[in-house]
Amino acid sequence: MQETGSISIHTENIFPIIKKFLYSDHEIFLRELVSNAVDATQKLKSLAQLGEFKGELGELKVKVSVDKEARTITIADRGLGMTAEEIKKYINQIAFSGATEFVEQYKEKDAATKDQIIGQFGLGFYSAFMVADNVEIFSKSYKEGTEGAHWVCDGSTEFTLETTEKEDRGTNVVLHVAADSDEFLEASRLRGILTKYCKFLPIEIEFEDTVINQTAPIWTKQPSDLTDEDYKKFYHELYPLSLDEPLFWIHLNVDYPFNLTGILYFPKVKDELQLQRNKIQLYSRQVFITDEVKDVVPEFLMLLHGVIDSPDIPLNVSRSFLQADAAVRKINTYITKKVADKLSSLFKQDRAAYEEKWGDIGLFVKYGMLSDDKFYDKAKDFALLKNVDDKLFTLTEYTEHVQANQKDKNDSTVVLYTNDAEAQHAYVAAAQERGYDVLNLDQVLDPHFVGLLEQKLEKTSFKRVDAATVGQLIEKEETTESVLSEDDQNKLTTLFVDAIANPAMHVKVAPLSPQDAPVVITQNEFMRRMKDMQRTGGGGGMQMFGAFPDSFDVTVNANHPVAQKVLSGDDGGKLAKQAFDLALLAQGLLKGEALTAFVKRSTELL
Ligand SMILES: Nc1ncnc2c1ncn2[C@@H]1O[C@H](COP(=O)(O)OP(=O)(O)OP(=O)(O)O)[C@@H](O)[C@H]1O
């Protein structure tokens, strides 16, 4: 029997379109054909289990081979096979309609969306035509008494179908590689593609006499059957270049209301610059799909490594659809919850070990708290704050810790912090001398984290140690009297204004404690934050603050002996300048010419 026919058409000649537009991703043809072969093999295994197939299963390997001379690639399986009728139904109709649907979706999209569709669309059998100008199927069904079938199609909509002698059950797909696809005749190229997409397929895939896959990767097993070593070994298999051990991992395993398995690893991160995204690999039934897991994994968890496997993630739709997809949203929520639960149990079980890891996980936790309210609610109990003495506190512990000393006159807690303990040393020391505690918040995310905590914690504000003189950082009821008359205070102000001669420095005289510095330079917390945010590109409303030059408050301590000296001496101006420069020095602001002048003047004074 031989039959020729025409594949029913909905869209005009889809093959040129498939060829042209899928250019960047031609290699996925092999993933598609090998997974079809694997599916067919698994279906046969299921039938055998159900008792519907009673024959010998025998060896079930899928064999991929290449013949450079003949210019063919063959994918051979011993799965359930197809009769001629089934080829007509499954290949001519179903596979074709998949391809047609793809092209239709594809045509409507802009270039950016097109790129995304390509990577995620399971194009199926017809992706063979991306690299072949002629495709043959030789198949024989597992059903007893059926004849072998031979289908040939040259990439037009015409096909031929005839009966053929085929000894063995299963399907051989033979691709006659097109002239512009020579690269796929190279064994090394094929091996590369197989390793990328098929490394964890559940049926053995043989290429050049070696099996290229692990059929039962550890994420498909029960956590109770696995040791720490198994998890670490797998981590290094996934990331052969990583020298560090993962900090810990989470084994995901859920079958309702969606299906998801996987392992997420917390990598060791030394600093934020090292963070690598796209380290999570997404699989669908053990077939590698992509390492762009955006939208499937919450943004803040993109920093994790590992594997997620879910048949419920729709792969054949555009990204905007993926974002809106209910299953994807549920997966997102589930992963977030799992991560929070894991961190919480680590914290509760072994606080010391958790504190040791805080340097590495702090960033994830803070990022998560900033980007996800639900995560904040869980993480607030295990997020830690570190003070300048390297002691770690939970949020509640810290509030209790500073309760006694750091309440202002309105009964609000003022949390003091430094973002550079070295540069702000003088301020940190002054605050500590007063019995205040100072937090070390020097990481990239910390300015945002401070903002978040102020919103969330009741009656609490944060001030950087150099935001005011130590006496004014936490405003109390009691005030110190000035030993200077009002007249002297005005005189002192003028002396300093003239000596400094810089309009960005706002001089005021105030009665600080005689133990405080003679002159203190501070930068208002609010203005500084606004400018910081503007610098880091935060929001349009902040724009106006960026236009202002940096301005500082210069507080002259009326109660310090230096104030008297400046007022009484002949070269009060020079002393004022000297005292001001010392304050600049403490703030790390004295540089260049001003520094040279200061050194010269100091020598003279000596
Ligand atoms: N090697 C094979 N053995 C048996 N049947 C096959 C084989 N390859 C394809 N088929 C049949 O042809 C159908 C169409 O295949 P195609 O790859 O186009 O789509 P699919 O596998 O259903 O979906 P996907 O788009 O996810 O690949 C399959 O559903 C299957 O019934």
3D architecture notes:
It comes from Hymenobacter saemangeumensis. This is Molecular chaperone HtpG. With 606 residues, the protein is α+β, with helices and mostly antiparallel strands. It has 4 domains: 2-211, Histidine kinase-like ATPase, C-terminal domain (Heat Shock Protein 90, 2-Layer Sandwich); 218-347, 2-Layer Sandwich (Ribosomal Protein S5, domain 2), CATH 3.30.230; 384-473, Rossmann fold; 486-605, Heat shock protein 90, C-terminal domain (Four Helix Bundle (Hemerythrin (Met), subunit A)), CATH 1.20.120.790. It contains 20 helices and 22 strands. The strands form 5 sheets. Strands 1-6-5-4-7-3-2-8-9 form a 9-stranded mixed beta sheet, with helices on one face. A 5-stranded mixed beta sheet has the order 10-11-14-12-13, with helices on both faces. A hairpin with a 4-residue loop joins strand 5 and strand 6 (158-164). Helix 8 (326-349) packs parallel to helix 10 (373-379), helix 9 (351-371) crosses helix 13 and helix 18 (561-568) runs antiparallel to helix 19. The longest helix has 25 residues, at 84-108. The radius of gyration is 35 Å and the shape is elongated. The structure holds adenosine-5'-triphosphate.
SSE arrangement:
Layout: E1 2-6, H1 14-21, H2 28-50, E2 62-67, E3 72-77, H3 84-108, H4 111-120, E4 132-140, E5 148-153, E6 158-164, E7 170-177, H5 187-198, E8 205-207, E9 210-211, H6 228-238, E10 248-254, E11 260-266, E12 280-284, E13 287-290, E14 305-309, H7 319-324, H8 326-349, H9 351-371, H10 373-379, E15 384-386, E16 392-394, H11 395-402, E17 413-418, H12 425-433, E18 438-440, H13 446-456, E19 460-464, H14 470-473, H15 486-500, E20 505-510, E21 519-522, H16 525-535, H17 543-547, E22 552-557, H18 561-568, H19 572-587, H20 592-605
Helix pairs in contact: 2-5, 8-9, 8-10, 9-10, 9-13, 15-19, 18-19
